[in-house]
């Protein structure tokens, strides 16, 4: 399979959507082959069902087997899906929940696949045994999502590449044109004009170095744009990938460290030191790709200035005006006779005299105000120059800040922040670029860990054990519990049972054809369901719900559930056609529940007897038929059939049936419907009770 369009059902249009979603054809193929059902479901026009069937189809091509090769009936598939639904509850990520669908039961001929899964699952079970109740690990896992690889950054508006060299211009335009402005300038004058429009200018040729630039233009010089790495010129791009996936990455790293501390290997390619390095580098950025507060002292100081400057200036001014007011109150002017004459002769202005008198106080108030600003904003040398012109030199009352100078100051601080952040992001981007591939691998492994961990946690919760695989056709278990009853009711009576050539064979007959008889509501259907659960899980390579279980793998599994309602003639015919498939000689396990309801009892017994005869001729098959007609069926069959029974001994004080859930071997159990009638009678009164009493008499 070389391309997407080699996959049936993926045409040109769909292939394009896959490529767009996953970033490339290879990535899309990897997702399909790797069973990333969650990811595939997100492709435009693809739902979860389509994704599951697509993955199944592609895997079937590779493995040469489909789920239906083993699960021969719709009811078997239903049991498989219900089991999967239970396992999915132990997933912590959507990825794992969806990917669990790649686990299917295999026929015996694919034993290598079953063994492969068994080996891996045994590892997952051990991991879950150690870590299954670690709440920290579980909450970390639930924070991990598939990485988003498409992390476009918006065009950078405040940075530009300027050059006088047309070659450099073309190269820069081609590489960076979509990310920032690239401009060709003719000389120093134009360079300055253009540069004033940006807070950060990269001058990309040595001619620019010779320009006589004013103080406010401070470009960064580069000889050749081609020799610069992307992380240097646009660090935002590399940082964006890590920022967008920050939560997943940080959770994965923490999880890796946690697993390693518990002796569980995780992504061997990255050593402990690199993991720590990646973790500390990631701690410098936030989810938007910005430099996190606290990661650079210089940036923090500038940001603090920018945040506080307005408030600080207004506080300082109000303090200064209070001081100025009290100075004015205390000021008096005594004119000497000489000064009076000078004023009268027009040699000096009275205004000058007043100014002279007040200048000292004003000056010291302004000086104090500036000192307070320097102190409170922690200003450094280079920033003092702009502060000088914050207040008017001429006495003005009340004292006010010169807004245009305050604005210029703020602008300078903002530019400095941007420049410093770019510098800082370059260091971060350089450090992170080294980890780009391994980060992707780590998260993928973390998500895949959750797939296995879900199976392990499922096994841990229900105390499942790996079954023993035996060579003969049969199944035997001890203390087995029906998972559907357990999840529904919380408790379940464990059951022991054996059918076929197992080490627990009760009478040495190795009977592989069994009729299960018994009391109404005794648990026959539940027993059949339990056997089905064990068969399916064992053929998936999964552990089974029994303290001990041995099973002979088989090629096909036929499960025929109890029919609902009365069947008409057409349905009777259909059921027979369905059953005809068991007639061939291939190894198989057949479970059927109360097949007798397909027609009237006499005819049913004959038909079931006939089917059992066909099955008993196949030494590679095993079958259990639940029936209330066991005696009648035995009369209608020539082959050796073992009849087992689930019997009730009475009703307890709460009127529940007292049932021995484990079947008795070679024992025809009575249906004991009278117990049910008795229960109904004791639970009712009046006419209703009279009715049930009459029915009860019929059994005496
Ligand atoms: N091992 C068990 N532990 C606890 N509850 C059980 C067990 N087996 C069956 N039950 C409960 O007994 C009830 C009847 O079970 P089930 O339907 O399997 O009986 P049945 O013998 O097939 O009945 P019927 O002959 O009427 O079809 C169900 O509610 C089921 O949950």
UniProtKB/TrEMBL annotation:
Domain of life where this protein originates: Archaea
Xref: InterPro entries: DNA-bd_MutS2_arc (IPR012401), DNA_mismatch_repair_MutS_C (IPR000432), MutS (IPR045076), P-loop_NTPase (IPR027417), RuvA_2-like (IPR010994)
Gene Ontology MF terms in the entry: ATP binding; ATP-dependent DNA damage sensor activity; hydrolase activity; mismatched DNA binding
Binding site for ATP: 518-525
Protein's GO biological process: mismatch repair
Boundaries of every DNA mismatch repair proteins mutS family domain copy: 511-700
Keyword terms, alphabetized: ATP-binding, DNA-binding, Hydrolase, Nucleotide-binding
Reported cofactor(s): a divalent metal cation
Protein family (similarity comment): Belongs to the DNA mismatch repair MutS family. Archaeal Muts2 subfamily.
Free-text function comment from the UniProt entry: Has ATPase and non-specific DNA-binding activities.
Protein name as it appears in the record: DNA-binding protein MutS2
Organism from which the protein derives: Methanococcoides methylutens
Taxonomic path: Archaea, Methanobacteriati, Methanobacteriota, Stenosarchaea group, Methanomicrobia
